[in-house]
Design goal:
The chain has 15 helices and ten strands. The protein has about 375 residues and is of the alpha+beta class. The protein has one domain: Cytochrome P450 (Cytochrome p450), CATH 1.10.630. β6 and β7 form a beta hairpin. α5 runs antiparallel to α6 and α7 crosses α11. The protein starts with a helix and ends with a strand. The relative contact order is 0.19.
Length: about 375
């Protein structure tokens, strides 16, 4: 993936690459693809729906397109509003943030990456209706299992068809991840995602698939965006500007997610012959939207950068498949930055270590203390 992103520096806005399909690096063309739901699909070779359908069965395809998809998003939308996101994050993460702030104020260092993994696990458990009173180690294991599952997709850049042996390993991981889902599906309230699934009459297999999807999307990308934004803020010195001008918080979150782009590549299947950027795409082709290249074309991280309409929220996708948890992700990042700056002093990074062999780029450790 890194080689592809680097090579794309030298391609045009849309290019056909042997064995990969069409590669798009222009934000406007990428948004065109994401908004053209008749011409492009998440199901079929090249789309993430193809991966999920192989894992959970043909019923799972309903979530990635059609009337059932629209119904699920509509019925669950109120769980993901800005107000609901703030309530969810404070309820599931507030005590941990208070403990982190206290440790920083006492002069200790904290591992932001390690904390983000636990915080993401607690938030996802709360949203799904799974037990939320487990020790931190349980949430670290949820995150690690999600990483193992995501890692199995690392070889799908050229094809989203999964080998039977890979599918078997993936199903074993899913069984562990969703062990508590059947009970929560039966008992969770309608203020949770699994409770809504039961209320809508979605079967347990589809609900397990949605739960697994949320675990991956809500932990991997959320933790990556949070920790990398904290690092970018420090490395550019912008944490001092944010201390001096707290109103810059929205800019800092938006810029962090733009530059980090936790989902650096988005795949689509071409459903019918169509034209994009003057090129003719044929039904059955696959498209890779290099969102990292598309969003980073606006320039390096700058907390004073004005809103860039061309990129908008491209790091969250677009169209009817725009990430349902976008507000939750923004609130999570802002909450962590506020915690790191709660002592009224800038923080410094004492040590850092990148995560290796992961699908979503991030830090294995990012240890900070107050300056």
């Amino acid at each position: 993936m890194f080689a592809l992103l680097e090579a794309a520096r030298h391609t045009g806005p849309i290019t056909r690459v042997p064995r990969l399909g069409w590669v798009v690096t222009d934000p406007v063309l990428a948004r065109h693809v994401l908004n053209d739901h008749a011409g492009f699909s998440m199901n079929g070779e090249g789309g993430v729906g193809h991966l999920w359908t192989q894992l959970f069965g043909d019923e799972m395809a309903q979530f990635f397109g059609g009337a059932r998809h629209a119904e699920i998003r509509t019925r669950a939308r109120d769980l993901f509003t800005e107000d609901a996101a703030r309530t969810l994050v404070e309820r599931s993460q507030g005590p941990t943030h208070a403990a982190l702030a206290a440790r920083l104020a006492a002069g200790a260092s904290v591992d932001v990456a390690g904390a983000a993994r636990v915080l993401a696990g607690r938030m996802v458990a709360d949203l799904l209706g799974l037990p939320a009173d487990r020790p931190d180690a349980a949430y670290r294991e949820v995150f690690a299992a999600g990483e193992r599952l995501a890692r199995l997709a690392m070889g799908t850049t050229a094809s989203t068809g999964l080998d039977p042996a890979v599918l078997a390993r993936a199903r074993t991981i899913v069984d562990g991840l969703t062990a508590a889902v059947p009970h929560a599906y039966r008992t969770a309230g309608t203020g949770t995602l699994l409770g809504r699934c039961r209320e809508m009459g979605l079967g347990l297999p589809l609900s397990r698939g949605l739960a697994t999807l949320l675990v991956i999307a809500g932990t991997e990308t959320g933790a990556s965006g949070t920790v990398r934004t904290a690092a970018l803020l420090h490395d550019t010195g912008a944490h001092r500007a944010l201390l001096a001008e707290p109103a810059l918080m929205d800019n800092a979150v938006r810029e962090g997610l733009r530059v980090a782009t936790p989902a650096p590549v988005i795949g689509r299947h071409v459903s019918r012959d169509t034209a994009v950027g003057g090129r003719r795409l044929r039904a059955g082709d696959r498209v890779l939207l290099l969102t990292y290249r598309a969003t980073n074309g606006a320039g390096p991280f700058d907390v004073h950068r004005d809103y860039v309409p061309e990129t908008r929220q491209l790091w969250f996708g677009g169209g009817r498949h725009l990430c349902l948890g976008a507000a939750v992700a923004r609130v999570q990042v802002a909450r962590m930055l506020a915690t790191l700056l709660s002592g009224g002093r800038p923080y410094r990074i004492a040590s850092r270590r990148p995560a290796r062999r992961v699908l979503v780029p991030g830090y294995a450790e990012l240890r900070v203390r107050l300056a």
